[in-house]
Design goal:
Layout: E1 6-15, E2 29-33, E3 39-45, E4 51-57, E5 60-68, E6 70-72, E7 82-97, E8 105-119, E9 126-134, E10 137-144, E11 152-158, E12 161-162, E13 169-172, E14 186-189, E15 195-196, E16 200-203, E17 208-214, E18 222-227, E19 230-235, E20 246-249, E21 252-253, E22 256-262, H1 265-268, H2 273-276, E23 292-297, H3 299-302, H4 318-331, E24 335-338, H5 368-377, E25 381-387, H6 392-409, E26 413-417, H7 434-449, E27 453-457, E28 472-475, H8 482-486, H9 496-499, H10 533-542, E29 547-549, H11 554-558, H12 561-569, E30 574-583, E31 587-594, E32 600-606, E33 611-616, E34 625-633, E35 646-654, E36 658-663, E37 668-674
Parallel strand pairs: 23-24, 23-29, 24-25, 25-26, 26-27, 27-28
Antiparallel strand pairs: 1-7, 2-3, 3-4, 4-5, 6-11, 7-8, 8-9, 9-10, 10-21, 10-22, 11-20, 12-19, 13-14, 13-16, 15-18, 16-17, 17-22, 18-19, 30-31, 31-32, 32-37, 33-36, 34-35, 34-37
Bound molecules: 1-deoxynojirimycin (NOJ) and calcium ion (CA).
């Protein structure tokens, strides 16, 4: 049965509750290796009863002595005076099935070590630390058991360290810097990292790692702060007035802190420990959740051809929406996003004016009932839009009504947005702190109750929660293609999308919004999209999202229906993903097999350098012949001077074929391999 999640599950305790505490704790090292012993963890206490860990990959120490623990507000810390009361070791081996995703079957094999710690003073406060050691990484979390002397408390600092080698190359975006996650990536030595987001990608000559977190619920976001070469967990404070990091009520477990590791950065892309460390699906029957593609009243707003606010130029009119519905229906696109349909856009909505947003009242020229009726008649659905302006209290107050309306009108998905200037919500808390994380969980649950799929912009980073709540489809949470329309720095440079797969995308799907065909942007004379048209096609494969936007205007697609065929054909739900080749910041070759199908799709992109790529098609099934349609850059294509020049060729391809392709500067290549 397809949706039977667990195919094989073996979980047994090898040695549990070894009740004899070691005599000399500071000399005692608790070691555990991953199932194939490719990674190894050691945990130990020093003379002061402080707890540390070290982690090795391929017999190389990749994390040296790094501290664990917490400082607490108005209480003595969970930092020292610990002794190990007992230790448990478990082994887990399972393969589970994603209801949708980039990989249908996922192996979840690890060795677990749990340390049951207690402080030696008269309060005897207890803290457990659970470590899961995988062949491709480590996850650990803190568990605060229910206990008399630690019930409700506030975390003032998490002490977790990631003491990596000092000469790693780091790829990062700044955290708490005023524009949430929407930055270009910087590449520096690890010692030049400041306060940065996760996933944080770190590359050595012979290995690559990614530091992130998993299952971020009811806790503050973890950023990374570099200090004298050591990377430290840095929790986002509650608010500028209240520097407390998290409010905790025991029993409670923190999100997992994760370190993915592989020999090369390309292998990091098919590591699934973040998903594995999330709880299985809590929503039961999720057959109503279906990946899809959507067009929308969106790019025309960013191009200033229409406006979000009402008036003569208003984009979200009934007539305009019907035009998009007709286009979607004609080309087999599932949804139509409509932005600017509701009250609240007339003032400075992006500058904390979001308190005016009403999520049930449409502007007078948008007939909510009629557009949904028409969409249904045509076999497509409207993707609702909830821009909040980061006035989340205003959104929370309307959640039940807003999601009831979506459900009632047959809108199967909603795109939400949390635009704001700065990092502080209208209600005073930090955008990435615990208050917002709690809000995201409320929205997810409400959407699930009403059977609505979510695509969220400017929200909290992905930490794999889609495993537990499969209605969490996609997020933006990085600089998306919108920047190409209006960014004063000229938009995303060609290397941006060659960095994203190795950084942001390690956290989960992204609503990048690819698919622009009119790249020179006539209405935006100071901007252009810095890719070729073929690269726009390739992005559908390279940048995974189960809800892919088909972002350009219908009239721009009508001019290139031969190239548009790729967007129509390309899958959004995958049996498997393989990274054929790649180098962060330079290029990538991604191959994915469509789920429930023998079809494969290949996407290749390059940075500003033109490039020859050699693709080895050994991922195809041996002995089968595939009808390939190749969408490539024309010989004179160039993202700056001639972005729209492409060539389409047909041929057959088989496993074992090795073919060379030329990519233009800022170019790409997309191949459909149909059976
Ligand atoms: C920012 C989002 O990223 C973009 O997609 C959206 O159109 C605007 N906010 C308005 O909500
Ligand atoms: Ca955005």
């Amino acid at each position: 049965m397809r949706n039977t999640v667990v195919l094989l599950c073996v979980m047994f305790t090898l040695l549990s509750c070894q009740h004899q505490p070691p005599k000399e704790e500071h000399k005692m090292v608790y070691s555990i290796a991953s199932p194939s012993a490719s990674t190894q963890l050691e945990v130990f206490l020093d003379e002061q009863g402080q707890v540390f860990y070290e982690y090795s990959f391929d017999n190389k120490r990749i994390i040296s002595k790094s501290q664990l623990g917490f400082k607490l507000h108005s209480l003595s810390g969970l930092t020292r005076d610990f002794e190990v009361m007992s230790v448990a070791r478990n082994e887990h081996a399972e393969t589970w099935e994603q209801p949708w995703g980039e990989q249908r079957l996922i192996a979840n094999n690890y060795q677990q070590l749990t340390l049951f710690l207690q402080q030696k003073d008269e309060q005897h406060r207890r803290l457990n630390i659970e470590f899961r050691v995988f062949d491709d990484g480590l996850g650990f979390r803190y568990v605060f058991p229910e206990q008399p002397n630690l019930s409700s408390f506030e975390v003032s600092q998490e002490l977790t360290q990631f003491n990596v080698a000092k000469d790693l190359q780091a790829w990062w975006t700044p955290a708490q810097a005023g524009n949430q996650y929407e930055y270009l990536y910087q590449n520096t030595n690890v010692s030049d990292v400041d306060l940065v987001h996760t996933p944080l990608t770190l590359i050595a000559d012979d290995y690559a790692l990614s530091i992130h977190e998993a299952a971020l619920h009811d806790f503050s976001t973890m950023n990374i702060q570099q200090n004298e070469g050591t990377l430290n967990a840095s929790l986002v404070p509650w608010s500028p007035e209240n520097e407390v990091k998290a409010k905790v009520k025991a029993p409670f477990n923190t999100p997992w802190r994760t370190i993915s590791v592989a020999k090369t950065e390309t292998e990091l892309l098919t590591s699934y420990i973040t998903l594995n460390l999330n709880e299985p699906n809590k929503l039961g029957d999720v057959s109503w959740i279906k990946p899809g593609k959507f067009v929308g009243i969106w790019w025309e707003l960013h191009l200033e051809l229409g406006s979000w606010k009402q008036g003569d130029n208003h984009g979200a009119t009934t007539a305009n929406t019907k035009k998009y519905i007709d286009f979607a229906a004609k080309h087999g696109i599932d949804g139509v996003l409509v932005e600017g349909w509701n009250e609240g856009w007339d003032g400075e909505w992006f500058n904390h004016g979001g308190g005016a947003f009403n999520f049930t009242k449409a502007y007078p020229d948008y007939d909510l009932h009629e557009v949904n009726r028409y969409a249904q008649e045509k076999g497509v659905y409207i993707v609702g839009h909830h821009e909040t302006g980061s006035a989340i209290d205003n959104y929370d107050a309307q959640l039940a009504d807003a999601y009831s309306l979506l459900a009632e009108k047959g809108m199967k998905a909603v795109k939400s947005g949390y635009v704001e200037t700065g990092e502080i919500l209208t209600s005073g808390q930090y955008h990435h702190g615990q208050y917002f994380v709690q809000h995201v969980d409320r929205v997810t649950q409400m959407a699930a109750d009403k059977k609505i799929m979510l695509v969220a912009h400017e929200t909290i980073k992905d930490t794999g929660e889609r495993r537990t709540y499969p209605n969490l489809m996609s997020r933006e949470v990085a600089r998306g293609q919108e920047y190409d329309a209006w960014a004063t720095d000229g938009g995303n440079p060609p290397n941006h999308t060659t960095i994203l797969p190795f950084t942001r995308m390690l956290s989960g799907p992204m609503d990048f919004t690819p698919g622009v065909f009119e790249l020179s942007l006539p209405t935006r004379p100071n901007n252009q999209v810095n890719t070729t048209l073929a690269k726009q096609l390739a992005l559908y494969v390279v940048l995974y999202s189960p809800m892919q936007m088909v972002s350009d205007l219908p009239e721009n697609y009508e001019k290139h229906l031969d190239a548009f065929q790729f967007i129509k054909d390309v899958a959004v739900d995958w049996e498997t993903t393989q990274i054929v080749d790649g180098k962060i910041g330079e290029f990538i070759v991604t191959a994915r097999q469509q789920r429930d199908s023998e079809n494969w799709f290949v996407g290749t992109i390059t940075n500003e350098q033109p490039r020859q790529v050699s693709i080895d098609f050994s991922f195809l099934e041996a002995g089968k012949t595939y009808q390939a349609r190749i969408y490539r850059d024309a010989v004179d294509a160039n993202y700056k001077t001639n972005p729209g020049a492409y060539v389409i060729e047909e041929r057959t391809i088989q496993a074992g074929d090795k073919l060379e392709f030329a990519l233009a500067a800022g170019g790409g290549l997309a191949i459909s391999l149909l059976r």
